[in-house]
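Q: Predict the assembly, please.
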Amino acid sequence: MEKFKEKIRNRNKKATLAVSMISIVYIYLSGTTNTLVAMNDFISGYNLGVFIALQISFIYFITKNNQALKNEKQLKTLYIKENDERTKLIQYKSSMLGISIFIFALLLATTISGFYNSIVFYTLLGVCSVILSILMFVKLYLIKKI
Amino acid sequence: MQSKVRALRREQKLSQEELALAVGVTRQTITSIENEKYTASLILAYKIARYFERPIEEIFDFTNIEEI
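A: Predicted assembly structure:
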């Protein structure tokens, strides 16, 4: 369990760093780009919403981990929740199914958009190529690693 | 895969939650194993067998494994 405790502490450090980095980037971008790019209300509202949601998520994550570090029972529950083999299998299978459906839908949308708008077509084609390349590299990496 | 997990657990008057905590999985995993919806990994099967102090093959039924 000591190893897991150390893992949680490291996670908290990374999360704290992420919270700070997100704040700095958001403040910097909203201070500089708002004046340069004509941002409409929807985009700025969206950006603010994402920023707040990320901050709340990270703070919740850090608080939950800190509580677990102080309570052995909570720590064991967290450990079991994270390492449960059935949960891992469900996550793996749902990811595989989800990504397959997503790629199929993207390829279908790319093909259909080709009949209507060339900009949309090339954008979707680019997205498809990037996603398929990433998947291929990840697969090759895992084949070598495992 | 068929198993005697439910029978052994009831024999020892254990709840699913207690067994789950003892072998380091969630209660839902124990439910799935008992309902034959999920096949335990070798490590989990070993932990369960060790917990009940029985050999793995006595708890889990390997007779229906497909031969290639």
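The helical segments of chain A are 2-36, 41-70, 72-83, 85-113, 118-145. The CA atoms of residues 114 and 121 of chain A lie 5 Å apart.
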